[in-house]
């Protein structure tokens, strides 16, 4: 299981990550998280960086454009695109059309987002719905802490157990 951390690379964090049971650890030097509200913002951010880009789209248009026409590494935070759910279904961010285009991308699920959310039940339901669609269309899903400090890191076994709660079977 991989661990993505939002801090600079340090020997202490790497040792702690190995101690907690992670096979691979990535630091903020290895990737960049881009929040984009428009296609123009996304394109300018992509031109500025040579690192792997994890996109946090703020609307559906940016998500569709990024998945179809750019070379991003993965996406996260899709469950926060829609503020309200429909009366008949969850508006979780990933539908069948988006999932078909995401075959080469990775869907990241952040434990830090879940823990800091004010409405954890709705967020976990949306994440679970996204994971079910991703499994159906064979999109890779990575569940990680995205911790910004050593206190935010969790055991790999705890992450696996929590992943099973939200319908993730494989790690």
SSE diagram, text form:
Blueprint: E1 2-4, H1 11-19, E2 24-26, E3 31-36, H2 39-48, E4 52-57, H3 60-69, E5 74-76, H4 96-101, E6 106-110, H5 111-116, H6 120-136, E7 140-144, H7 156-165
Parallel strand pairs: 1-2, 3-4, 4-5, 5-6, 6-7
List the main descriptive attributes of the protein structure presented here:
171 residues; alpha/beta; 5-stranded parallel β-sheet; two-stranded parallel sheet; 18% strand; globular
From the spread of the alpha carbons, the general shape counts as globular
Which series of helices and strands comes N to C?
EHEEHEHEHEHHEH
Strand content: 15-25%
In spatial order, strands of the major sheet run 3-4-5-6-7
What is the percent of helical residues?
A: 25-40%
Tell me the radius of gyration. Answer: 16 Å
How would you explain this protein's 3D organization?
The protein is an alpha/beta fold. The chain contains seven helices and seven strands. A five-stranded parallel beta sheet has the order 3-4-5-6-7. A two-stranded parallel ribbon has the order 1-2. The radius of gyration is 16 Å and the shape is globular. The mean pLDDT is 90.
């Amino acid at each position: 299981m991989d661990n993505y951390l939002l801090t600079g690379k340090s020997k202490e964090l790497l040792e702690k990550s190995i101690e907690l049971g992670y096979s691979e650890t990535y630091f903020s030097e290895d990737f960049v998280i881009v929040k984009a509200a428009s296609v123009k913002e996304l394109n300018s951010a992509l031109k500025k960086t040579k690192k792997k880009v994890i996109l946090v789209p703020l609307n559906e248009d940016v998500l569709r454009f990024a998945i179809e026409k750019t070379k991003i590494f993965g996406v996260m935070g899709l469950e926060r695109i829609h503020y309200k759910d429909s009366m008949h279904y969850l508006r979780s961010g990933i539908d069948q059309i988006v999932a078909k285009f995401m075959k080469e991308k990775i869907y990241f699920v952040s434990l830090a987002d879940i823990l800091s959310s004010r409405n954890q039940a709705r967020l976990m339901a949306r994440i679970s719905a996204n994971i079910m669609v991703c499994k159906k269309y064979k999109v890779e899903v990575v569940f990680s802490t995205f911790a910004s400090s050593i206190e935010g890191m969790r055991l790999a076994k705890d992450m696996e157990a929590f992943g099973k709660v939200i319908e993730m079977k494989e790690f």
